[in-house]
Every structure is written in C-alpha cells, then in structure tokens.
Amino acid sequence: MPAVSGPNGKIEFDAGALALPSGSTFMAHAAGTLTLPLGDRFGIQADVTAATAPGFNTSAALHVFTRDPASYLIGGTLGVVRTPGAMVLTAGPEAELYLDRWTIEAWGGVSVAHPSSPAPTRIAPFAMADLAYYLSDNWRLSVGVSTLDNFSAVHFGTEYLLDDSSISLVGDARLGQDGSILATLGLRAYIGAPSKSLIRRHREDDPADRATQLYSAAGGVTSVVPPVPLPAASSSEPPSSSSSAESSSAQPPDPEQASSTEDDTESSSSSSSSSSSSEEASASSSSSEQQTSDSSESSESSSSSSSSSSSSDDSSSDYSDLPSDEPLNCPMGDIVVDGACFDPGGLDGGMD
Fold first, then answer.
1. How many CB atoms lie under 10 A from the CB of residue 124?
2. Which residues of 316-326 are buried (b: 16+ CB within 10 A; e: fewer)?
3. pLDDT at residue 187 above 90?
4. Any bridge partners for residue 62, and if so which?
5. Cα–Cα dist 88/183, whole Å
6. pLDDT digits over 101-150, tens only?
7. Considering the chain, what percentage of its residues have pLDDT values greater than 70?
C-alpha cells in the first residue's frame, strides 16, 4: 500500500476554556491540514493552527515521511508556535508504530525560543508522545505527555467518527505543570478521501496534527509575557538622609559661624579663668582666715599660760592662801613645817 492513499485533508473547530492560576478565560481554536503523496513510499503534510488564549496564538508544522500503513511511519518535522510570550522553533524526527488496535506516536528534537520581551534566547530539548487505543474502528482514546521550552504537561484525548460520515467529535484536556488546565470540545471534518473508518484514516491518510500539538504543549513563560522590570532609579531623585549628612559634613564651615564659635570659645575660656581666679581668691581668703584664727588661738593660749604662771607665782608666795588639804609645791631645797615651806639656809643665817 502507498504511504498516502491520495490527496486529503481535514479542518477542525473547537471551543473551550483555559484555566490559569491567575484566572480563567474562554478560548476558541481552529486547525487544518493538507496531506499529499510523494510517490508510493513518501508523503508530505502541512499543518496550521490558530487559537485565542492566552492571547492570540498561531502554529504550523511541515512533515516529510515514509510509511507502511500496516506497521509504522517514520519521518522528520519542522514546527513553529507563536504565543504572546515567545516564538518557539522546533525540529526533530517523528515516528508512529501500529500494533493492532494500539498506536504509539512520538516526536522530539530541539526547540529554540525567542522571547517577546528583551531576554536571552532559550535552547532546550522537546518531546511529545502519545499512546492510543481504538475501542472500535471509529472510536479512539489517547493519553500523552509533552515538554516544550521547559514546560511539561499531560493530556487526555478522544475522537469518535460518526457512522457513515466524515465528521467526528473531538475532545482534549491538558494539565500543565503550573496547574493550568486547557479543555476543548469540537468537530473535525475529513476532506478528499473516500469513506473509511477512523483507524484507517489515521494510518492511510494523514499523520498526527503537530501544529495543534505544539499549541497544546506551550505554556508557562512560552505563553505569557513576562513582567517588564522597573527602570533603575534616576539620578534626579533626592539624596538620602545619610548622603545629606555626608554632604553637610564635607562642606566648609561658614566664616560667620566659625567666628561666632571662636567668640563662644573665648568667652567660655574667660569665664573659666574668672571662675578659677575666684576659686583661688576664695581659697586664699580661707587660708588667711585660718591663719588668723590659729594666731588668735595661739595668743589666747599664751595669755592663758601667762595667767597660769602668774597665778602659780602668787600662790607660791602666799602659802596661807592654799587649802590645808592640798599638797604644797615647795621650791627645791625647802622643807615643810606645819604646812608651810621654809628655806633651811635662811634659818642658818638667822641663827648665826
């Protein structure tokens, strides 16, 4: 069988909601693909997508592949997704493996993100993988994981092809690493190919829509414009108090203020000198008074001594005045006779 049965395509319209940590918003999504055979063994497919949340998003992808509809698909895909936060370019191999009712799909490679605001370019690996199972020929369930521009997510999808129709119902829900939830429900219409079951359309006509997968995988800094940093403080702002203090301390002193300070200093010195002189005079006066007092006391003591001597002389000359019960203080050599002092020498002279 050929890699592509014939020219074919599909269009899709979805609506849903995007719940971010900052709030929820309604979103709408439209997508389309065109697949062409390149001989019997190769095919080419172009995908385009547009969505309204967060902001306006667009994405596109181009596949070149070879396929055996009974067992595998292998090829390479270029993709781009543009969001309010960045434009991300992706490139890498893709593959599909068909195992009866199971299908494994994978795409990976390198992504280069160019932020919308001034910021460095981000280069990182990316990967997308899905595991699908067909409950019937017309009903598919899938679960997948993705990582793009350092944002990881897990998603669940379903598609049911209406009987004897080229219209299917599609639904998808994605849970991002930041807690965001993207949920959509819509219709998909197949164009150009003869009437087939859903599993045959997926393996004989068009591969997975990588543009829609890019949009669904984008999130975090990829989808949201980062806040613009505040400009640095301008030099026209008033200086701080510490700067003012330093400026005032660095300014030369005012001559008048310096003169006033010197006058105050001299006045203080004069007052101190006056106080010192007053203290010295007071001390000198106290010393003089003390000396005068000492002299007076000395004079009084001398007078008292003189008085005592005079009294002693008087008492010695007049023995009769002394009381009889007090001892006599006779001059040396005198003797006491009947309570009186007598000089023996005097007595001898008298006797001669």
1. 14
2. eeeeeeeeeee
3. yes
4. 46, 78
5. 22
6. 999 999 999 999 999 989 999 999 999 999 999 999 999 999 999 999 99
7. 64
Q: What is the pLDDT of residues 75-111, one digit of tens each?
A: 999 999 999 999 999 999 999 999 999 999 999 999 9
Distance CA 31, CA 186 (A): 11
Beta bridge partners of 42: 38, 66
Q: Per-domain residue ranges for the chain?
A: 8-222, 319-352
CA distance 130 to 276: 104
d(C-alpha 51, C-alpha 83), whole Å: 9
Q: What percent of the chain has pLDDT over 90?
A: 58
CA distance 297 to 190: 142
8-222 is classed CATH 2.40.160.40: yes
Show the DSSP H helices in the chain as ranges. Answer: 198-204, 210-217, 241-250, 255-317, 344-351
Q: Are 182 and 24 in contact (CB under 8 A)?
A: no
Give dist(CA 174, CA 160) in Å, integer. 19
pLDDT of residue 25: 94
- What SS3 state is found at 338? coil
Listed residue (188, 154, 182, 155) closest to 170, CA to CA: 188
Provide the token pair at 232: 């640095």
HSE-up of 51 (CA within 13 Å, CB side)? 33
Work out the burial of residue 212: count CB atoms within 10 Å of its CB; fewer than 13 is exposed, 13-18 middle, 19 or more buried: buried
**Rounded mean pLDDT of the chain?**
78
CA–CA separation, 14 vs 52, rounded Å?
A: 11
